[in-house]
Amino acid sequence: MMLRWRDAMERALYGPNGFFVAGANPAAHFRTSVHASPVLAGCLLRQLVALDEALGRPARLDVVDVGAGRGELLRALRAQAGPELAARLRPVAVERAARPNHLPPEIDWRPEVPARITGLLLATEWLDNVPLDVAVHTPQGWRLVLVDPDTGEEARGPALPPDDTAWLTRWWPPAPAAAPMIREFVSAGGSDPDVASLIVAAEDGGAGGGGARVEIGRARDEAWAEAVGRLERGLALAVDYGHLRDARPVDGTVTGYRDGRQVPPALDGSCDVTAHVAMDSVASAGERVARCAYTLVSQRAALRALGADGGRPPLGLAARDPAGYLRALAAASAVAELTDPAGLGGHLWLWQPVGVPLDPLVAR
Ligand SMILES: C[S@@+](CC[C@H](N)C(=O)[O-])C[C@H]1O[C@@H](n2cnc3c(N)ncnc32)[C@H](O)[C@@H]1O
């Protein structure tokens, strides 16, 4: 059975035996910034306090976490909030997976984003798990890539629908083609038969690959715009690994994670299947709904602005307060992990304010 990638991914992650809904604990398979450290919650709490002030300290302050995993971030935020703020917080986890046992009853658990939100809407590593289509360039133009979820085998499908073609035209400009580069190599004296077959594959587009392969982010744009549209006043924040228009990945990014390892993306529900997010197109879609400018920076820059301090504690503290020194050392290494530009620090933070004057990079 051949499916569009979007449908195959939907089934693999959220179908009857889907990876996220059949009981897998995401933290056992991959590590997100939320799993990495309470430092993240501390920074987000500073941001929440600034937002609360900008909103005039409403009697009910919503904190909605879309794609909440096991509710780890909401738990950490509640644990770190002072009593006055905690009493006004309304934490809501939006998840397709079932409510975990032992979640505090104060945390609401739902399958849909609430209709009207005043406060903070969070989406950490949600959008990369929103299923998307894959397309390949062929001499006849762009074609959807179809995939057999049982074998992973791919084939060319129908021509791209007009909405997807419009998305590609705007957001994923063509990369330099492979074929001319290979031809240059041949004309410089290469006559290897393997290279000759590469030329054929590149010119022909191959079955599911060979020609330029792209991931169509329209489904993520729509999901984000829909969520932002539920904010009456407040701030939406998406954190994810992503890319921008002037540096799209050459051959796509779809991959899998299982038991803490990166693996080929099996579509049978046995692993996470994920693809990087075109964060600028997501940002533009949210901005259209919010009618308010967005801010997009690296996680490293965001956490620094929100007060994450990666400096080592002074050695003198070790003599005065050994336990305090060890705590400070652990916090510093957590910040180092969260801000490593080659790892979690390279994630992108997209802030979208709605109806509230707020510079998201200034926390109190
Ligand atoms: C990679 S996990 C991230 C979990 C957590 N936010 C973190 O950063 O550790 C993505 C989660 O998003 C959930 N998810 C995906 N699409 C969703 C949707 N439309 N509504 C609610 N949850 C969704 C999945 O079930 C999964 O638990």
Description:
With 364 residues, the protein is α/β, with parallel strands linked by helices. The protein has two domains: 31-130 and 218-241 and 276-354, Rossmann fold, CATH 3.40.50.12710; 133-214, no CATH class. Helix content is 36%, strand content 23%. The strands form four sheets. It has a seven-stranded mixed β-sheet with strand order 4-3-2-5-10-17-16, with helices on both faces. A hairpin with a 2-residue loop joins strand 6 and strand 7 (141-147). The protein is globular, with a radius of gyration of 23 Å. The N and C termini lie far apart (55 Å). The protein binds S-adenosylmethionine. Residues 20, 26, 32, 34-35, 66-69, 94-97, 124-126, 129-130 line the site of S-adenosylmethionine.
